[in-house]
Amino acid sequence: MLGRLNHVAIAVRDIAAASKLYRGTLGAEVSEPEALAEHGVTVVFITLPNTKIELLEPLGPDSPIAKFLEKNPDGGIHHICYEVEDILAARDRLLNSGARVLGSGAPKIGAHGKPVLFLHPKDFNGTLIELEQA
Amino acid sequence: MLGRLNHVAIAVRDIAAASKLYRGTLGAEVSEPEALAEHGVTVVFITLPNTKIELLEPLGPDSPIAKFLEKNPDGGIHHICYEVEDILAARDRLLNSGARVLGSGAPKIGAHGKPVLFLHPKDFNGTLIELEQA
């Protein structure tokens, strides 16, 4: 079921400083920041040869990463995203195995304009997993 | 400087249960557990089409992931590993930028038999970064 690792998402307090670090110190290809108001984050994409890293900075009062940054003031790895071919088939397989899908269970349109679901970290070794229909 | 994402490492309490979860529920290709006494971990490799996930379970009393699991009882993402062409050139570039390299600064031989270094999470958005000479 699991396909490519689509991205690793890192929550940061200051996306300008984090971009400078990845572009300068680490010598990576880093996009310009993009504000995604409907997702409550400003995002930067770091392009690696085989996948990408996404830096996320909170945007607005109800950002989904605000609490994470309260608990992890330096920032940290927030989630990993795996691609699946069919998000509904993936969801049903997970629910049949007893794993919990966050929210209503209906896929939402994610930051890349594709259907996504998030899985409960308690059911996956403390790891927040996003599934994205490739 | 940064090359491919070599792997994402996830610390787990019970590598047999975590392997079953990835193989069964998530439908991924999962290797048999391998005890790496000199690294203080038992490791399992999950092969994705573009990179891999490594599950790490503590091995022995001085495991480098024991403290992490004390703080994160469910487990969690422990580090990410980026490939670099020349580990010594990478180290010197990092030190010249004021970033901290863990340990003596001399590369060690990592779990894949290649030279590796770890960078200080405080200097990289709370993320433990491993660099591996590809």
TrEMBL record, chains A, B:
Q: Which residues form the VOC domain?
A: 4-134
Annotated CDD domains: MMCE
Identify the Gene3D superfamilies for this entry. 2,3-Dihydroxybiphenyl 1,2-Dioxygenase, domain 1
The chemistry this enzyme catalyses reads: (R)-methylmalonyl-CoA = (S)-methylmalonyl-CoA
Which terms does the UniProt entry file under GO BP? L-methylmalonyl-CoA metabolic process
**UniProt EC number:** 5.1.99.1
What are the GO MF terms of this UniProt record? metal ion binding; methylmalonyl-CoA epimerase activity
Ordered alphabetically, the record's keywords are: Cobalt, Isomerase, Metal-binding
Class of this enzyme: isomerase
Among InterPro entries, the record links this protein to: Glyas_Bleomycin-R_OHBP_Dase (IPR029068), MeMalonyl-CoA_epimerase (IPR017515), MMCE/EMCE_epimerase (IPR051785), VOC_core (IPR037523)
What family classification does the UniProt entry report for this protein?
Belongs to the methylmalonyl-CoA epimerase family.
User: What is this protein's name?
Assistant: methylmalonyl-CoA epimerase
